[in-house]
Amino acid sequence: MNKTGIYEIARLADVSIGTVDRALHGRKEISENTRRRILRIAKELGYRPNLAARALSVGHPAIRIGVCIPREIHYFYDELRAGFVTEARRFEQLGVEVVYRRTKRLGIGEPEGLKELLALNVQVAAICPGDPASLCSLINQAEDRGIRVICVASDAPHTARSTVICVNPALNGQLAAELMARFLPPKAEVAIITGMLQTEDHRKKVEGFSEKFRQFCHGGRLLEVVEGHDDEDETFQKVYALLRRHKTLAGLYVSTANCLPVCHAIGARGLHGKMKLITTDLFKEMVPYFERGTVLASIHQRPYVQGQIAVRLSVDYLANGRPIPPTYYLTPHIVMRSNLHLFREIRRNGIPEG
Amino acid sequence: MNKTGIYEIARLADVSIGTVDRALHGRKEISENTRRRILRIAKELGYRPNLAARALSVGHPAIRIGVCIPREIHYFYDELRAGFVTEARRFEQLGVEVVYRRTKRLGIGEPEGLKELLALNVQVAAICPGDPASLCSLINQAEDRGIRVICVASDAPHTARSTVICVNPALNGQLAAELMARFLPPKAEVAIITGMLQTEDHRKKVEGFSEKFRQFCHGGRLLEVVEGHDDEDETFQKVYALLRRHKTLAGLYVSTANCLPVCHAIGARGLHGKMKLITTDLFKEMVPYFERGTVLASIHQRPYVQGQIAVRLSVDYLANGRPIPPTYYLTPHIVMRSNLHLFREIRRNGIPEG
DNA sequence: CTGAAAGCGCTAACAA
DNA sequence: TTGTTAGCGCTTTCAG
């Protein structure tokens, strides 16, 4: 394990271990000079604290990871949270703890949530920015104070956040496009159903899709991009109308989780199994549509794994001193009928996903 | 963290903590009576050792995971090993250590390797059985002694091994079949290139594929199953001949990692981009074939993640007392051109895969 | 066969 | 501002 401890530092700096402790923890009861000296020596020695000893000594969790996520949309954020919790439990004995604050909805109450986390003295704060602008200064402030902010599932660009963990939205669209192009003959006509294009995330998915679809499908055409605003009725109506406008439409890519009304509209037009449908993410209610062949594939963004990774990066950083990579893009899973049953969202007794 | 420690047990059993320690560790210098009494109390209290304290006390790794894998096939087992090593490092501070023994080739020297691990006093032994029959009694012996044996990547059926971590081979074939069926029109003709059918793993992939291909592709036919015995020349020759025999062949599924000779044969016949090719796993040399459209998709068995999971299950079991699930089937990734660059095998500076 | 006690590296309370 | 010291829960001597 570790070689040099505070005792060794103390010996070299000719002070007591108490003073070393004060220097290392940025406590105030110490002169700037000795602090600098001690920190220099610690660095020269490549000192890394023994977390087992620390955990033992403090007796309660000393590494606190704050998580602030919505509880909206019944599954995605639950999975995300489960990833945080189960992964953190693995490091329980090292004194790792996650504290959880939920917001009502994505984009609502996020600054307040983050503030609460900071007040709880977390070393790392993980957030899903729905409204990045409202969080900007708070994030920068936190990072200034040495608190690492990790964005999960969506990013807060132009901030000092330490990293973002997500499926690159452009890739999401590209992969859907490649699949769609393989599923369809040349010159096929397709459309996209999205949430709202003013959201950067949605826009990038659309861009990714349209760029690659053109590339992979010779003579293929993207007829329309429909904004459903993640509203069930609106989406149903718009898709229902869309299917009527374009009798030649062969494929649909739903770039948001709101795919049920699309399935309904397809059913209402008697197009089950005719229309090639590629969706995003996964939840139980989608199963029958996989089984009927309505949904051919879904791009699964692995929220559970995103939570796990956030914890792992935090522990790697806090416990093992490894730097946090500035972005962490993970590969989405492609859910199809054959592998459907392997996903946590579908199983009764969820198994972990590795 | 933990409430009841050995001190509490000692108090209730009216002995000293030294005696409790002896009881808990099955040391011999203790009477059977007191041992039983102490163990009973410990169980009643739901005692779980504080690993931080143990790690601190012993000063060197106390949790030892043995890994015995081949070094053959340049990438798969390297990735597997990397998964073990990096994940174990996360638990370094808890005293987790992996010891590694390599075998020359899959199926060669496996009993010797496992014996060496057992001699090193591992608590968990992870192995890739290439020749399960030769390992059978050794595995059962180990489990009898309380050493948990984890099979990785392939199984040792009819043994007492604690678990197997792998992609279900049947699923591998099924997923390939579903993809293939979506890529091809009805009544398409396909063939499989495999290693050797006497290997259970290969046979199951073939079965999975043929069952599902029939189901997903109306009127589709599996013309041949070619055994290449994982030999480059043999495979090339056989596929080259195959392509000549069946001018109508539209798709090929390569169920082993040995896909390069297949690509070469396709090239030699001028069929780049015409023949729909689905392969297994991933390594650098495949990249150009993705780019040219020779390979449309590959079923990636995620060796790195398999190694990670083995460590996680071990730690969950050893450190947190969680039972080991009897099988752990993971979802393979589907590698296509759009997501190719995200895989560790392709990147220069490998990033972890979550 | 059992008990007592030292010490692992660190934190925190108290003394100086 | 700094030094000293008592644990945290466990393993490991060494005595009995």
Q: Could you characterize what this model shows?
A:
Two copies of one chain form a homodimer. The first copy, chain A, is an alpha/beta fold. In chain A, 44% of the residues lie in helices and 18% in strands. Chain A has 13 helices and twelve strands. Chain A has helices spanning 6-13, 17-24, 32-45, 51-58, 76-90, 110-119, 132-144, 169-183, 200-216, 232-245, 260-268, 287-291, 303-320, and strands at 63-70, 96-103, 124-127, 148-152, 163-166, 189-194, 221-227, 251-254, 276-280, 295-300, 327-329, 333-335. A six-stranded parallel beta sheet of chain A has the order 2-1-3-4-5-11, sandwiched between helices. In chain A, strand 1, helix 5 and strand 2 form a beta-alpha-beta unit. In chain A, helix 1 (6-13) packs across helix 2, helix 1 packs across helix 3 and helix 8 (169-183) packs parallel to helix 9 (200-216). The model of chain A has no long low-confidence stretch (mean pLDDT 94). At the A-B interface, helix 4, helix 8 and helix 13 of A face helix 4, helix 8 and helix 13 of B. Chain B binds a DNA duplex (16 and 16 nucleotides) through helix 2 and helix 4.
- Class per helix and strand makeup of chain A: alpha/beta
Q: Spell the H/E element sequence of chain A.
A: HHHHEHEHEHEEHEHEHEHEHEHEE
Which oligomeric form is depicted? homodimer
Quickly count the domains of chain A.
Answer: 3
Number of strands of chain A: 12
- Strands in their spatial order, largest beta sheet of chain A: 2-1-3-4-5-11
Tell me about the largest β-sheet of chain A: 6 strands, parallel
* Fraction of helical residues of chain A: 40-55%
- Radius of gyration of chain A, in angstroms, nearest whole number: 25 Å
CATH topology of the largest domain in chain A: Rossmann fold
- Largest interface, C-beta within 8 A: A-B, 55 and 54 residues
